[in-house]
Amino acid sequence: MANEFLKNRLQVNRRHFLGKLSVGLGSAALGSLLVPDLFKGGKDQVGDLPLGVTHFAPKAKRVIYLFQNGAPSQLESFDYKPKLREMFGEDLPASIRNGQRLTGMTAGQDRFPLVGSKFEFNQHGKSGAWVSEIFPHIASIVDDICIIRTMHTEAINHDPALTFMQTGAQQGNRPSMGAWLSYGLGSENKNLPAFCVLLSRGEGNGQGVYSKLWTNGFLDSVHQGVQFSSGEDPVLYLNNPEGMDRPSRRRMLDRLAELNAKSYEDFGDPEIQTKIQQYEMAYRMQTAVPELTDLSKEPEHIVRMYGADCLVPGTYAANCLLARKLSEAGVRFVQLYHQGWDQHGNLVGEMQQQALDVDRASAALIKDLKQRGLLDETLVIWGGEFGRTNYCQGKLSPENYGRDHHPRAYSIWMAGGGIKPGVVYGQTDEFGYNIIENPVHINDFHATVLHQMGLNHEQLTYKHLGRRYRLTDVAGEVIHDLIA
Amino acid sequence: MKLLSRIATQVGFAGLILLGFLLAFESYLDIPTWLQPLGRMHPLLLHLPIGVLALLVLLPLIRNEVGEESYRKVRTFILDLGLILTIGTSLFGLFLAQEDGYSSATLSTHKWLAVALCLLVYVLHTWNSKLSQNPLLNNTVTVLTLGVLIATGHFGGAITHGENYIWEPLQTEEKIDLAESSLYAAVIAPVLDSKCNKCHNERKSKGKLVMSTKAGLLKGGESGSLWLTDQPDSSLLLQRIHLPIEIEEHMPPEGKPQLSNSEKELLEAWISAGADLDAPLADYDKSTAIYALAGQAMAGKQNAETKKSYDFPAASPKVIAALNTPFCSVEPLSANSPALAARISVREYFEPSFLADLKQIKKQLVYLNLTDLPITNDNLKDLKDFPKLEKLILNGTEVSGSNLETIGTLPALKSLALSNTETDSSLIDLLRKATNLEEVYVWNTHIDSNIVDNWQSEFPDLQFHLGYQPDMTEKLKMSPPTLANAKMLLQPGELARLKHSLPGAIIRYTLDGEEPDSVEASIYQDPMSIDGITVVRAKAFREGWEASETVSYTLFQAGIKPAAVKLLKATSGNYRGSGEATLVDSEKGNASNFRSPYWLGFQDNPMEALFTFEEPKRIDEIVLSYAVNMSSYIMPPKRVEIWGGNGPDALQKLHSSKPEQPNKYGPNTVEAVSVQFDPMSYTHYKIVAFPVTRLPEWHGGAGDKGWVFSDEVLFFGADD
Q: What is the ipTM metric for this complex?
């Protein structure tokens, strides 16, 4: 793979070289005369670092990102605020809100009545972390995870927030985290995509996910996330059609590769190389994928661990199990999305249901990685795109309420991959509204994830439209206090 | 030129007198505030005389080239400039020296060297023409000046950057024996060294505080003692480090490297525990915070010390490239590291030769992942002389306990994963050989907690990971059965199929809307034929498991397809589905995914759709399928009207129906209203469905407008 990267980069070099000479036949000819020397030059001008190789020794080799899409409430999960219960129905003090902009959904509300969690909180594990009663299984692994209560973002609506969390920018034209890692590190198993995407949906009010979240952006299209289908066949059209056997498929691909190689010689378009590689990988995936996605051979105690849903394709539990199998087989970045966490109303009922969907399987994934000796080399991330307001949206009653979007503070957790276990990081004020200690911005979060993968976020760059781009753009600092 | 020379002569003379005067009365000096900025410009200005005077030495190099006259003119110019700058810089330096924190032997040396330099430059300047007649003397004085210049600069640099500054990167850190040394020396002093002592040392003691020595720490600075052991919270040091960074008294000052949170915690715990400068870690009570924090910090250090910076020779890039095949990946641990990590994948393509090939990199391989490959103990012989291998993953392979000891001789092996294999208690032979092994993973093997308990006494430092052991008596809830049909709309002749993926599950179902129970309800065995709209309610059961939730699928049979459909009123929002044809495309949606192309959404207008047949159709039942997703304000229609006629303008209302409205939140479902009537023949039928105008009181959006979402309208009737 490193070799493929090198070829690709050399290709980029030549194009840069030609681009820099002023346009014209003469300069092009001169350029092609000089190119062989460029190949021998070795040192790469575009970025000084080889791709497919980490900048320093990594803590984690793989990432599994359990994205809770729609923004689960931090106040009903990991950020315990008893004060909000005491102040039930009282208005949010203006000094706390401090000019925070509102969404169109609550901007018209004349009151912002505070409401505390309907669910009880208890302390768990040696770390004594507070976890809500609707996450009993996650509570049982608090000593293996690091809860960050002080994530914050600038975005206030789902689409930009989600895009920010996934790509480091609110506008959707940048490569996703998984694409950056595929670009920076390549694949550990060349028979599977380096970046896989699994979707599931809960009963709660949902927000859509779309392929721009797992886009390769301006990177080569081999780095795009491959979406697995939630149906019986996780990878569509992978089986040979009727009447086509494996040897004839092989012959067909060989001839096709010859034709493609010829047109690559003529045009030099790197996308043709990508195409050849993708055909080859798809051929090998025909064997590699069925080995992995066959859940029927899982022993019953695995089913008991992840919950019975793990055998029903398309559920969060099944995706967690599949994520473990993909990651175990060397997929660099497995991205899950579980939709349905947007509780503007009926929070109590919906959140309970959503928690039921994800709690057992999320915890099972951590335990399962741990018992295979893989947790120390796999970074697992659990969380949404922003938090939820400490005041009620819509009708407030002691039994039920809703919460609007809140960008200033929210909770996520990470586990494994060299992240400090059994830690609760950061503190919000007693209203759960503002951060008072140790904020973690999305850029910082990205920098830290890349750091754990052995990459310096300031050095993993790609030149596009005349400037170098990073996942963290021009900001972000590694949060060393999170690192074991 | 002449003017400059005259100024230089006078400034030089006056400056020297002033310098002498100030030096003589230095102890009485009190620099007024307005002069302090001049003093602080000393570190800026000092580069000028250094540069200019260095030119003086280099000038003879071009003497022949420029000619004698030019040479002399340039030399005079350099001396003029040099004298003014040297004396000016020295005066400013003297001002700076009066500020706090500069009192040490280094400063004194620097000061007197600077005075000597001033005198030498003055001599060179004043007796320039005389000296040039005696080249030997001239050169001697010039070289001497240069020597003094370098010495002055060096000692000046030592004051700002510390004496060790230049050679520091080349020095290896002093090894501290963590078990023997005091806790202060092991964990506290390094923090102070890296974050405080640059400004608080014996040479530069800002605020008259020296933190690089124990005596200095105990003495404190001009603001008082650093800590109060009886009131640790009011300790000056802790107050200063916890102030917000914007406040001037915050330490370390803004712009300097800051203390990390763990460093702050460490200092706080140490001061609370009495700030002892000599006690070793063993003297602290194990329950104290400082014991835990210092333990962590020391462990971190030891890790860093023992962490190998791999120093063996790297493998040839050609060998690595050749080993990288689609089924084997070999990559360096990081750029510039000779250590390699390898993984072999895809069970079906595995060849034992893949392992044998790895011998080419046996001196570099530190990590090997062989998960799920058909590897037996025999294959492992190829691995027995990999001297650097630290982590070996054999999960899901076909190895077993006996004979495994071939890999026990791997000298560097620290972590061995054998989960999901047939490994048994004969693993003990391997454990006895593998002296460096730190952890072994034996989940889902024949090794259980009894065996591990026995072994633990023999291998007290070895970590056994037995993993999660499920409680097989726990009654877990089953997942509900699923519908195996691709669509909820069944084509003629298509049978409804249910399934469950847990082996041994029993599916019971009803078709009459009743709750399926574990006794009466029919057991599903064969695919079923379905009539009209049928609600299949099904539930899964199995011994030892809690029955699943009841799941309900509303199945529709494909109806008579109209020739055209037209929406008379627009949809609301962006919920346009796939256009008007959405209603007759035989595609059913999912109520949770109402944004999908299968749904049309209406809020401001009622849904009003006109269906046209090419010739009059005998119809006796019309079905409107709709979504219920209450938290998204999607309710059953308040009222549904059916109109019919032989032309768009000849419609008359045939029927009207009011679907039942829910009275509390429930799951998201697809429901349908079926309107049956005596058979009628028309070419045109119009369906109108009115959204709820005010959501009910129990709803979170009480009083707001509701939505109607429909995915399909079906027509049934006989063709005769």
A: 0.85
What is the average pLDDT across A167-177?
Answer: 93
Check A291 against B372: CB less than 8 A apart.
yes
Q: What angle do CA A29, A30, A34 make, to 5 degrees?
A: 120
Partner residue facing B592 (CB), from A3, A201, A301:
A201
For domain A53-232+297-482, which CATH number applies: 2.60.120.200, 3.40.50.2300, 3.40.720.10, 3.30.70.890? 3.40.720.10
| Burial of residue B659, with CB atoms counted within 10 A of its CB: 0-12 exposed, 13-18 middle, 19 or more buried | middle
Please answer whether residues B23 and B91 qualify as being in contact, where contact means their C-beta atoms are separated by less than 8 angstroms. Answer: no
Say if B346 is an interface residue toward chain A (CB within 8 Å). Answer: yes
- Mean of all residue pLDDT scores within chain B: 86
Closest CA to B689 of B613, B595, B623: B623
Mark whether B569 and B541 lie in a shared domain. no
Q: Do B631 and A204 touch (CB under 8 A)?
A: yes
What does residue B520 show for φ and ψ, rounded to 5 degrees? -80, -40
- Do B146 and B41 reside in the same domain of the chain? yes
Confidence of residue B177 (pLDDT cuts 50, 70, 90): low
Phi, psi of A424 (to 5 degrees): -115, 120
Q: Is residue B474 part of a domain?
A: no
Which pLDDT score is estimated for A48?
42
| B51 and B156 co-located in one domain | yes
The residue range of the domain holding B505 is 482-556
Q: pLDDT digits over B426-436, tens only?
A: 888 888 888 88
A80 to chain B, closest Cα gap in Å: 22
Residue B335 C-alpha, separation from nearest chain A C-alpha, in angstroms: 5
* Residue B564: strand, helix, or coil: strand
Burial of B479 (0-12, 13-18, 19+ CB in 10 A): buried
Dist. CA B487–CA B74, nearest whole Å: 96
Cβ contact, residue pair B593, A201, below 8 Å? yes
- Give Dmax (Cα) for chain B: 135
The verdict on a CB contact (< 8 Å) between A394 and B327 is no
Lookup: tokens for B718: 């006989």
Last residue of one domain, picked from the residues B439, B465, B491: B465
Instruction: Please tell me the pTM assigned to this model.
Output: 0.70
- Are B261 and A329 a contacting pair at CB < 8 A? no
**Own/partner long-range contacts of A240-246 (Cβ < 8 Å, ≥24 apart):** A240/A286, A246/A286
**Nearest-angstrom CA–CA distance, A145 and B262:** 18
pLDDT of A76 higher than 50:
yes
Are the Cβ atoms of B467 and A188 closer than 8 angstroms?
Answer: no
Q: Tell me: the pLDDT tens digits for B455-507?
A: 998 998 899 999 988 788 888 999 999 888 877 888 888 899 999 988 889 99
Query: Looking at this protein, which amino acid is placed at residue B253?
Result: P
The answer to whether residues B61 and B127 belong to one domain is yes
Reduced to 3 states, what is the DSSP secondary structure of residue A203?
coil
Chain B environment of A350 (Cβ under 8 Å): 631
Rounded Cα–Cα distance for residues B170 and B166 (Å): 9
The set of residues, in sequence order, having a beta carbon less than 8 Å from that of A420 and lying 6+ positions away, is A146, A481, A482, A483, A484
A35, pLDDT greater than 50: no
- Give the pLDDT score at A32: 40
pLDDT of residue B308: 54
Q: What is the average per-residue pLDDT within A378-385?
A: 97
Pairing of strands B463-465, B439-441: parallel
* Angle (nearest 5°) at CA A351 between A305 and A400: 145
Contact A280 B321 (CB under 8 A): no
Tokens 């809140």 label which residue? A406
Under 8 Å CB pairs connecting chains A and B tally to: 177
Across B26-53, average pLDDT: 85
Task: Record the tokens describing residue B330, joined without a space.
Answer: 């070999």
Q: How far is A58 from chain B (nearest CA, A)?
A: 7
Q: How far does A66 lie from chain B, in Å, by closest CA?
A: 20
